[in-house]
């Protein structure tokens, strides 16, 4: 019945009219509206695009958009046993062939040798593409699988979508030539020379290996990464250093200046001790991928696309504490007191806790935010502890906040405390030994005994040229970024489109790399490490870190 209805609809809108252009719209507006249909499942009037699967099951295209299956770049994807083919113009408007060893969209030659192929389908036209979208059949008349939606598109909306698909991934993204791929890294002026060297040493090694692999055939262990055996895939890599100086409110304009002078394909890593917000906003606005900057103050967003972070940083530790506490079974009310230092780190920890605590449906949290001088108001805290009688006290501060633990022990002896290992840093082992059995610590990294097998990764990439103190995990986190980037570069093949780089990374299996328990990916996910441990300290001056929870996954 539905197939009959779609056929009548197709006759009504008149597919021959699709040959006409969208002259009522300028090209930019047409692309914006087409992108909205393709990526978000929303028609130009803002209403959801209606579609049907399995004959008569209506779907909401905001949850079942074209990009969900075919990727934002239109180059297809594989989800379980379902392979979604490419739907960009270069693929659709050329015949599709089956080779003995792989499927390609067009007949090609590999190193000058012609390859026999069987045609899977002829090229689409505007009319046959409209038929495919509405009735679910290809140019040969073969029906698509039932899970492929059949869409209800009126003539104008069909023209907009067809025009968008014809232009999708039609031109390489900025920063790519036949010989070179240009990248950048971002460094803010609050970063120490030592920390800066820990980042740039890795990136310099990447550039050196890339060049030597092509020119001198050195480092065969990296040849596969750079596809040196097929020169069509190879590009020289350059990495500019975008150094930002002065107040953060001026960083955006500095980035715009750098980009005007030399567009890049993506931003590789970067480092800042301050919020990544200005860099995040710049990359989102200009649609530039930014891969795993070394920051513990990332932007927390459900809608951003172009910046991928290793984790949510301090925010994620706050989330972990909330989930851990909410799962503890108790007959008493879970009275929580949160003491927050007036720093970006303290506020991020508190924000993560409050968000996850609210989601868990628990009670209110009493919060004391310290003044900007960061002095511990001893009498105020003692009085607050006496009145509220908290079961758990969250102390979101650095080593300077450790005296609060003694206050809690004296005024609320039955209370537990939570601290952040990342914020405490070296001060972690300064927690008084007599209080350690009641102090819980969020620990976002792999357990120390499990990290030993990953030692030397950074040194391997640097080939012994640079050795840095890895206490801040800058070199190892940058190594992990390079690993993920090269894996994505391999999978891109000749499809040098920014969205495709992010698409292929999103389809990668879990990666087991230094620092974090694992890097887990998925389409549209932007925080790779999705968990954290809760630990306690053992006895002695060099205490053991004792795991008190499994990896708390988000």
Topology at a glance:
Elements: H1 2-13, H2 27-40, E1 50-53, E2 57-60, H3 66-70, E3 77-79, E4 82-84, H4 89-92, E5 96-98, E6 103-104, E7 109-110, E8 113-114, E9 118-121, H5 126-135, E10 150-151, H6 155-167, E11 180-188, H7 193-215, H8 223-226, E12 236-244, H9 251-261, E13 266-268, H10 277-286, E14 290-291, E15 307-308, H11 314-327, E16 336-340, H12 344-359, E17 365-369, H13 378-388, E18 392-396, H14 403-411, E19 416-420, H15 421-424, E20 439-443, H16 448-451, H17 457-462, H18 474-492, H19 498-506, E21 533-537, E22 545-547
Parallel strand pairs: 11-12, 11-13, 13-14, 14-15, 16-17, 16-18, 18-19, 19-20
Antiparallel strand pairs: 1-2, 1-10, 3-4, 5-6, 5-9, 7-8, 20-21, 21-22
Helix pairs in contact: 1-5, 2-6, 7-18, 9-10, 11-12, 13-14, 18-19
């Amino acid at each position: 019945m539905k197939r009959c209805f779609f056929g009548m609809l197709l006759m009504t809108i008149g597919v021959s009219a699709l040959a006409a252009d969208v002259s009522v719209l300028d090209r930019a507006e047409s692309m914006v509206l087409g992108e909205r249909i393709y990526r978000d499942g929303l028609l130009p009037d803002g209403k959801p695009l209606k579609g049907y699967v399995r004959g008569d099951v209506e779907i909401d295209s905001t949850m079942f958009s074209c990009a969900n299956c075919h990727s934002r770049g239109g180059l297809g994807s594989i989800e379980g046993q379902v392979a979604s083919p490419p739907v960009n113009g270069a693929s659709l408007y050329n015949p599709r062939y089956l080779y003995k060893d792989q499927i390609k969209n067009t007949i090609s030659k590999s190193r000058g040798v012609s390859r026999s192929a069987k045609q899977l389908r002829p090229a689409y036209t505007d009319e046959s593409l409209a038929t495919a979208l509405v009735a679910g059949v290809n140019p040969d008349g073969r029906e698509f699988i039932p899970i492929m939606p059949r869409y209800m598109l009126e003539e104008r909306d069909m023209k907009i979508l067809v025009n968008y698909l014809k232009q999708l991934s039609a031109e390489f993204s900025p920063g790519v030539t036949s010989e070179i791929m240009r990248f950048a890294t971002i460094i803010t002026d609050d970063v120490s020379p030592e920390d800066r060297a820990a980042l740039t040493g890795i990136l310099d090694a990447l550039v050196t290996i890339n060049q030597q692999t092509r020119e001198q055939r050195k480092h065969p262990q990296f040849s596969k990464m750079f596809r040196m055996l097929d020169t069509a895939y190879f590009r020289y890599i350059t990495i500019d250093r975008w150094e930002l100086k002065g107040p953060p409110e001026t960083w955006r304009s500095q980035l715009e200046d750098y980009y005007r002078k030399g567009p890049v394909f993506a931003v590789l890593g970067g480092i800042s001790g301050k919020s990544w917000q200005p860099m995040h906003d710049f990359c989102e606005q200009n649609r530039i991928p930014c891969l795993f900057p070394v920051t513990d103050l990332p932007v927390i967003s459900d809608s951003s696309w172009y910046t991928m972070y290793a984790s949510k940083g301090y925010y994620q530790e706050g989330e972990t504490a909330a989930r851990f506490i909410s799962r503890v079974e108790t007959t008493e009310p879970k009275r929580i007191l949160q003491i927050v230092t007036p720093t970006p780190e303290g506020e991020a920890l508190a924000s993560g806790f409050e968000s996850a605590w609210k989601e868990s449906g628990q009670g209110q949290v009493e919060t004391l935010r310290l003044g900007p001088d960061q002095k511990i108001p001893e009498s105020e805290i003692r009085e607050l502890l006496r009145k509220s009688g908290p079961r758990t006290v969250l102390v979101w501060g650095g080593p300077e906040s450790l005296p609060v633990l003694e206050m809690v022990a004296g005024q609320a002896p039955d209370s537990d405390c939570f601290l952040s290992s990342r914020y405490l840093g070296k001060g972690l082992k300064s927690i008084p030994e007599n209080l350690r059995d009641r102090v819980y610590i969020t620990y976002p990294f792999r357990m120390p005994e499990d990290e030993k097998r990953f030692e030397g990764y950074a040194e391997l990439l640097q080939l012994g040229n640079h050795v840095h103190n890895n206490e801040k995990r800058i070199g190892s986190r940058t190594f992990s970024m390079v690993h993920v980037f090269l894996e994505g570069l391999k999978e891109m093949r000749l499809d040098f489109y920014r969205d495709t780089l992010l698409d292929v990374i999103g389809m990668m299996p879990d990666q087991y790399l230094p620092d974090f328990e694992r890097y887990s990916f998925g389409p549209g996910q932007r925080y790779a490490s999705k968990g954290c441990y809760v630990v306690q300290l053992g006895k002695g001056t060099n205490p053991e870190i004792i795991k008190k929870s499994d990896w708390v996954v988000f």
